[in-house]
Specification:
Length: 320
């Protein structure tokens, strides 16, 4: 880790405090730490999970239970009741019901049937993304610095350049059951991976303990920020255009993610290239309104990251 990386998002894990917590409380602790820094994920965005061995309330047998942030709320302020809890064996059995991509939405209705311990918290549509990754602890974040990579046309090549094979990459796909299976396949095929960059969307990272997962997530995000600051010339073919209007707000967000506020101008230049490069049409479109961006996302899903940035803007707006 070089000096640039160390200037970015600080590790806040407190071992003494963590030693007093149960496995579920450790998941909550990790979630609150991650959600408290909007460079790591936007308000209301991202989710976390842990696969925890617990006694079944009916049989007393030990079963594996997925604790995953449910629908609604924000990671930074959530409490334990914000997690949905589901039997892992039932989630695995669901695979037999899956009829393919065009039917993936019907899988959402099966999720409540997997509920553990009558938990009333509704499972989110991201549940299968966490369930099928074969690691005990999983974070899904929308970090500014990683989105700055994920949102470029060259996101696959950049992921390889920044992480040198430590992270996998998946092409844009709407979050849902099928993406869960794609994540599982990738993680099983490449067991050395520390996470996956989702094109135009964000990041999945994991670990075998809550602390390991938390540290891995931060390391991955720090490296994205460090890379972009060090190596702007490593991004061939990015057009340089003058930032205008609304586009500036998004770029400021990305620039902040790069951890370079003091030297805002260079971060600004980098963010500008990264954000604008995704599609030149965004320059005039982005000045119009956030609604237009959402519309754009609906017509071209690969621009999902811009909606993510737009979503977080209300909470995290910065000016250079
Ligand atoms: Zn997401």
């Amino acid at each position: 880790m070089n000096a640039v990386d160390n200037q970015t998002i600080p590790m806040r894990w407190d071992d003494a405090h963590a030693a007093t917590l149960t496995e579920a409380q450790l998941l909550l602790y990790r979630s609150n730490l991650l959600g408290a820094d909007k460079r790591i994920t936007n308000f209301g965005g991202g989710n976390t999970s842990a696969k925890i061995a617990l006694p079944d309330p009916l049989t007393g047998e030990t079963v594996e239970v997925l604790w995953v942030k449910g629908s609604g709320g924000d990671l930074g302020s959530m409490t334990l009741d914000g997690f949905s809890t589901l039997y892992m064996d039932k989630l695995q059995a669901l695979k037999q019901r899956y009829r393919g991509l065009v039917y993936e939405d019907e899988m959402v209705d099966y999720l409540p049937h997997c509920t553990f311990n009558l938990n009333p918290r509704a499972p989110s549509i991201d549940t299968p993304l966490h369930a099928y990754i074969p690691h005990r602890h999983v974070d899904h974040m929308h970090p500014d610095a990683v989105i700055a990579i994920a949102a470029t046309k060259r996101s696959r090549a950049l992921t390889e350049a920044v992480y040198g094979g430590e992270l996998g990459w998946l092409a844009w796909q709407r979050p849902g059951y099928d993406l869960g299976l794609a994540l599982e396949q990738l993680a099983r095929k490449h067991p050395h991976l520390k996470g996956v960059v989702l094109e135009g969307h964000g990041l999945f990272t994991w670990g075998e303990t809550s602390k390991e997962c938390y540290e891995n997530t931060l390391r991955v995000i720090r490296r994205a920020g460090g890379f972009a600051l060090r190596d702007t010339r490593g991004l061939p073919g990015l057009p340089v255009e003058q930032p205008i209007g609304e586009t500036q707000a998004r770029m400021a967000l990305v620039a902040r993610g790069l951890g370079e506020r003091a030297r805002g101008e260079s971060a600004w230049a980098i963010a500008h290239r990264l954000v604008v490069e995704r599609d030149r049409r965004l320059v005039p479109l982005a000045v119009a309104s956030p609604e237009l961006l959402l519309e754009l996302e609906a017509s071209a899903p690969a621009h999902g990251s811009l909606a993510v940035i737009s979503e977080g803007r209300g909470d995290t707006r910065t000016t250079p």
